[in-house]
Amino acid sequence: MPVGILRVCLVVITAIVNHPLLFPKENGTVPENTEEIIQKMKEREETLRLERLRLEQEIAEQEATQKALEKSAEVVEETKEEKVRWDMWTALSMIIFLLIEVWRQDFQEGNWQDTGGEEDDMAVLGKAFKGLAFPDKAILASFYEKRILGTTGDMARMREMVEGFADDLLEALRSVCNRDADMEVEDCMGVGSMYENWRVRKPFVCDLIVPFAPPEPYCFQSHIWCSGDSFPPDEQGYGTIKVCRAGEDVTGCICDKTKLGEDMLCLLHSQANTTRPSSEMEDLLCFKNTQYLDADQVMKWFQIAVTKAWNRISHKYEFDLSFSLLDSPGALKIKFRSGKSIAFNLTPVVQYENSDVYFISHFPRSSLAADLPSSTHWFLTFAVYERRFIQLVSKTLPASACHVSCLQILSFLHGKQCSLTGPSGLTNYHLKTVMLHLLQARPSQDWAPEKLEARLQDMLKFLEKCLHEKKLYHFFIGNGNVPAELGFPIIFQRAEPLNLFRPFVLRRDIYRKTVDTFHEMLRNTSALINEYTVHIPLAQTNGIRKESL
């Protein structure tokens, strides 16, 4: 067996060694197509190399595309997340904007001065009010009877005397004026605290306004801040008065602005109907070289006319008349021979169109009031409508309602505090505005006389809230809920609300002084009231408290 295998191996080895291709003989012949085969193999090799390069390039491109797709997918995902976040903030901003717009619309529709509710009033108050011992009903009633009613009983007689004398003085004024050149003076009207029956502090001063109009053929053309044109913030609440011929276009004719030529004539304005020279316009109390009524010129004319009128009728009276204040041109004082005196204000005004809103030449100034933009800007007063509103609402209130009592007590407390610590930015007009807002906001039964204590606290809380926010809106301007019975002009109801506390934003020193004075008044309320209150036995006070409970 091994021998057989060995033989086979020898045969195979011999065959291999003798194979002609492995060891060709020198005389052996090479096939004729060897070079062609080699050339084809090289071409094949080159083809394979190119194919390999192409495949490698495709693989690289695929990998690059895959990476680009993955990166793009990441960017898209991040963009989606950012878009979701952005959409969320956009939606939130839109919701906030809509809420603000709804809130603003509520303000313009009449809820623009938030009066709050009884349940959350204490949350509005600052630290100065918390923990204070506020006078109870019995002490307040005794204080009101002794200090308020005891000193205001003679106001009616004083009003009657002043009105009668003012009518006589104005009649004499008409007689000394030139009817063809001077202003035409109408009858006077009483306004303010003396005629609304809430004046408490002496000296009692009657405020009378005197409407006047220009002589024929002239008329007044008024222009107010809320008539459509833009006015600076410091001119809101003011207006201007232009003196024009009756029927004259306020904007003026084109002949005043264009040279028509020597051979052309304006058919509307002939030489006999030309505008008065500047000197004659000044005779109409206009500002120099303008057609706008000048408040300073009006007051100078009025003072001279009143002086002439008094000289004509002074022999009829056993007292003297003089101008009492230099900074208030309409302030007059009657001096009796006994030494007593009566003060009153007689102020010329211009009627706004056919309403009872008036342009007033000079308004009582306070430390909070800003200076007038110019003497051609007239302040608008709504005093006649304020008096009518109080009279109208009083008819719906219970008998002996406490609204006037609250205002009188608050006015007394503020006046007393200012006499101790100096004047502040608050005025009696601000206090009356607070009462007007609460009169409109609260139902009639809340003003019953036994609720004096609660309503007085409401006024103090509301006033502190307004001071904190530096916002106290004018009662009529921007108030869409004014009763229709008053016939109040719609243009003022549609105007933007006028913030009476806007100067506090600009005058921080006065604001700080006002807030300090108010808080000091709150702390001194009990002491100021007890000082003028008749002693009440403790048992009687407790009995009244039990009845109220």
Automatic annotation (TrEMBL):
Localization, UniProt: Cell membrane; Nucleus outer membrane
One MF term in the entry's GO annotations: protein kinase inhibitor activity
The keyword Transmembrane helix is assigned to this record: yes
Keywords (A to Z) from UniProt: Cell membrane, Coiled coil, Glycoprotein, Membrane, Nucleus, Signal, Transmembrane, Transmembrane helix
Signal peptide: 1-15
GO CC annotation, single: plasma membrane
Domain of life: Eukaryota
Membrane-crossing residue ranges in chain numbering: none
Residues covered by the Mab-21-like HhH/H2TH-like domain: 404-481
Coiled coil: 38-79
Topology versus the membrane: Single-pass type I membrane protein
Main location: membrane
Database matches in InterPro entries: ITPRIP-like, Mab-21_HhH/H2TH-like, MAB21L/cGLR
Role: Enhances Ca(2+)-mediated inhibition of inositol 1,4,5-triphosphate receptor (ITPR) Ca(2+) release.
PANTHER family: CELL FATE DETERMINING PROTEIN MAB21-RELATED (PTHR10656), INOSITOL 1,4,5-TRISPHOSPHATE RECEPTOR-INTERACTING PROTEIN (PTHR10656:SF8)
Family of the protein in this entry: Belongs to the ITPRIP family.
Name the UniProt record assigns to this protein: Inositol 1,4,5-trisphosphate receptor-interacting protein
Species annotation: Centropus unirufus
